[in-house]
Amino acid sequence: MRIPGYVRPLAGALLLFLSFLPSARAQDRVDVALVIAVDVSRSMSYEELRIQRKGYAAAITSPEVVRAIQDGVYGRIAVTLYEWAADSYVHEIVGWTLIEDQADAEAIAAVLLSENSMGARRTSLSGAIRAGVKRLEAVPFSAERLVIDISGDGPNNQGVPVTMERDKAVAKGIIINGLPLMTSSGVGSAFNIPDLDIYYHRCVTGGPGSFVIPVTEWKEFPEAVRRKLVLEIGGVEQPEPRVIPAQLFREEPYDCLIGEKIWQQRMWQFDDFDR
Fold first, then answer.
1. Phi, psi values for residue 26, rounded to 5°
2. The whole model's pTM is what?
3. By CB neighbour count within 10 A (0-12 exposed, 13-18 middle, 19+ buried), where does 238 fall?
4. What gap in Å lies between CA 123 and CA 44, rounded to an integer?
5. CA-to-CA distance for 71 and 136, rounded, in angstroms?
6. Are the C-beta atoms of residues 229 and 65 closer than 8 Å to each other?
7. Model confidence over 181-226: pLDDT tens digits?
8. Do residues 85 and 126 make contact, with C-beta atoms less than 8 angstroms apart?
9. 3-class secondary structure, 215
10. What is the distance of C-alpha 246 from the center of its chain?
11. What are phi and psi of 94, to 5 degrees?
């Protein structure tokens, strides 16, 4: 079939336009879309909140993290960071931003260090995860992996059970990694649990290759964040155990509502304090 002469210029223009589409789409691709969710519940002191800001700024600009970004297939990641506390409290510090090089990382660090964190009431891990899912559903880039990086110093004590939001996120193909802050200082220590790392493993994290890196002392925080970001950006899964047990091991049941129960038992002791 002959194409009429008046159609040929339009067809040529369309083909030229289409030839640029793959390149344009490639520019929108990232190796990982990473949500960083940072706990600022009132159980943490002003000094501890500042350690968190400085720790994330130092980790994002570290040579190891920048190298992990540049070693990816596309050599870029998308990052957003917010602080969370109660189910209704999410304070965005950094909206979706591309990181391709040291300058991009330094720009994000500058934003983090430009102001101080403000503590807020309660601890809703479920709300923090839900906020991360909403952002990943609206990410303006095509990502190979979707990750929520969540830190906190206590169990969920407000909002829906954390396992509900965790399971919804994992069903959408999202990986959730945890940074439990197992420090014992602070006015909210009465609401802490000694096995917060196990709680994060059993109740908070999920998805292929998900992992938990606990922090037992604040001096460990910057290095823990750096390690965590390198693993998340590089998509490195935790190694499988070399020895496989001959018998099937079944984990003991774990109470993922422990935070809610502690709150109900002890809230009367803290009339002027909302963790």
1. -60, -35
2. 0.83
3. exposed
4. 11
5. 23
6. yes
7. 997 665 555 667 889 999 999 999 999 999 999 999 989 999 999 9
8. no
9. strand
10. 36
11. -130, 120
